[in-house]
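Justification of computing resources. Each target in the renewal requires a structure prediction run like the one illustrated here; the chain below, 383 residues long, is used simply to show the kind of job we budget for.
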Amino acid sequence: MTLEIKNLKKTAKRIVKAIKNKQRIILYGDSDMDGVSSVIILQETIKSLGSDNIEIYFPDRENDGYGINEKALLFLKKFAPCLLISVDLGIGNHKEVVIAKKLCFEVIIIDHHEILKTLPKADIIVDPKQKGDKYPFKQFSTAGLIFKLSEIIFENKTPDSLRKSFLELSAMATIADMMPKTDDNAIIISEGLDYLKSTWRPGLKALFEIEEIKELDLNQKVYKVNSLLNVRDVENGLPGSFRLLTISSDKEAKILAEKLREKGKDRKEKIQKITEEIEARISSKESEPVVFEGDSKQEWDFPFMGVVASIITAKTKKPVFLYSKREKESIGSIRAPFGLNVVEAMKKFSKKLITYGGHPQAAGFRIKNEHLEEFKKHLFKYF
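Resulting structure tokens:
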């Protein structure tokens, strides 16, 4: 008997039913490369089967919070009743899923992040890490899961050009999300990178033609392109990466690729400045087990914090918790060396966290300012 990812076939059947019934589908995705790629693969799968009744939504992490959030649900309720599919987020949104159901959304969560104490009360959940999932490999990117979902929806008869393109996106997302390059991921990356050499997507072609990228080898190109696709550039609620990867005009793709390139230079300078400030702060704190630093003046751009945290953790070999302090709450980004699990660390403090979740080595949180110092003490003790 072939082992299957739990609920993947069930999800495929529900999506096919929605397409046949001309039901509206909302694709609600994270705005990083994994979330954006997942939304594109699912959107193009649904469109190719004849449905254009799709709404796309990417939450603003900085203003609305990570994952499914109430503000977004109230904005989207004009489309209810309908099918809401969250990708690359949602596995920790217990309260928000209850709100979504009350607003007449049918909720499917497709995620690859760590399961918190319990599962949300969604209609269907796909996450290889949930109990009862017998599939042996657990470390997919969400785009990898969506690729497998798409193949089931197409009954393993995916049009060749789409299949190749979906593998390209899945490979890039798997690399961007730093998933292990083994087992199923090794196959996705190997095939996907091979197809990337002759991609038909104008956005990818434009990025590969950028002067400082085109002379690199393929692996270096993917790293640089993923970095540019992570540059924050939102228009009409859509990230620059989504717009560039779905653009149909070569001319428009070149213009947007150049815009991201210029923003990338500015981003690099800001990241360096934040990194230097944090390094100066922690130079006298070498004995502390955790780097726990915040920005109370709101001078640090929150979208850069994950990158800065990665740099600091690579240098210090410590878990790094960086946060932006707002009026009443703080939002944080976390990175940690391999072998540590920051999600488990936060579970022990979960009653005082508004939201939290992610991977063992890369996660995020939102907390009331009054609990910051206590959170810091808890982390110092835990690690």
